[in-house]
Write a structure and sequence with these properties.
The complex is a heterodimer.
Chain A: H1 3-24, H2 29-49, H3 53-78, H4 91-113, H5 129-136, H6 141-162
Chain B: H1 3-23, H2 27-52, H3 56-86
Helix pairs in contact in B: 1-2, 2-3
Chain lengths: 167, 99
């Protein structure tokens, strides 16, 4: 087993196990948030294995560093530690879940039948900050500007929604 | 490792996230599961970007991360105001707009 395979299986297994941890952690929401951090960081490992260093670093900075911290802040701010909500038993949900599983099975069957080409050869600098930025600030400049506007709108909306009373 | 194995991991992660949205009643955990599904899509995009040696997939992942960050900020603000008004994180208590 090569190093890449060993890393793939450990990061992939960790991702799925900690994702399951979020799902089955019924009693304590903070523990679920910490499981989510593990998921995000091991996904960053998978991204770096896929030659996407910039996305991997962004994943750690934005998801593990900002989004999950925001979750933990909100959980602690609202003091929700004692709320224990079990699994839900609704026929509609069971039906939706069964449909989803069937779709996944069909998709997996088609994926297994597809021919597997080996990935394209890429330059060593593929996916680095400089490489992605060169594309972002030329071909996708308008999208980057729109993302900036969206972030600003999001900040304003969050403040307006979370404020107790608007002056 | 080929693209296939990464797609399997992404699919399983998406399924776990979808199961979380369907079976959990805690709004915060439902939110985390939505994040997981977005991440599964990101993993799939990055794997295909590597497969074809094309950076467009990674640019799309960048946009998904931006939208996810905004979504979490606004969503948690909605959650806070919901908890102020309903004093509960149970999704079944938010039924004001239910027909």
């Amino acid at each position: 087993m090569s190093v890449e395979q060993a890393l793939f299986y450990s990061f992939g297994g960790l991702t799925l196990l900690s994702a399951l941890g979020v799902l089955i952690n019924v009693r304590n929401t903070v523990n679920a948030a910490l499981c989510l951090v593990v998921t995000m960081v091991s996904l960053a490992g998978l991204f770096i294995l896929l030659h996407a260093e910039f996305i991997g670093i962004l994943q750690v900075l934005v998801y593990a560093g900002a989004i999950v911290v925001l979750f933990v802040f909100v959980i602690m701010l609202l003091n929700l530690r004692s709320t224990s909500l079990g699994a839900e038993h609704q026929p509609v949900m069971k039906l939706l879940g069964a449909g989803l599983l069937a779709m996944a099975a069909v998709k997996l069957a088609t994926l297994l039948g597809a021919d597997r080409r080996s990935p394209a050869d890429v330059a060593p600098e593929f996916g680095t900050v400089a490489d992605v930025a060169a594309v972002l600030y030329t071909d996708y400049l308008l999208a980057v500007e729109a993302a900036g506007v969206l972030l600003l709108a999001g900040i304003v909306a969050a403040v307006v929604l979370a404020k107790r009373e608007l002056d | 490792m080929g693209t296939f194995e990464y797609q399997v991991v992404a699919g399983l992660l998406f399924l776990i996230g979808a199961a979380g949205v369907l079976i959990r009643r805690n709004l915060i955990v439902v939110f985390m599961s939505i994040e997981m599904m977005l991440n599964a899509a990101n993993l799939s995009l990055v794997a295909f970007s590597r497969q074809w040696g094309n950076l467009d997939g990674q640019v799309l992942v960048f946009m998904v991360i931006v939208v996810a960050a905004v979504e979490v900020a606004v969503g948690l603000a909605i959650l806070i105001s919901l908890i102020r008004n309903r004093d509960s994180v149970n999704v079944e208590d938010a039924t004001l707009l239910k027909w």
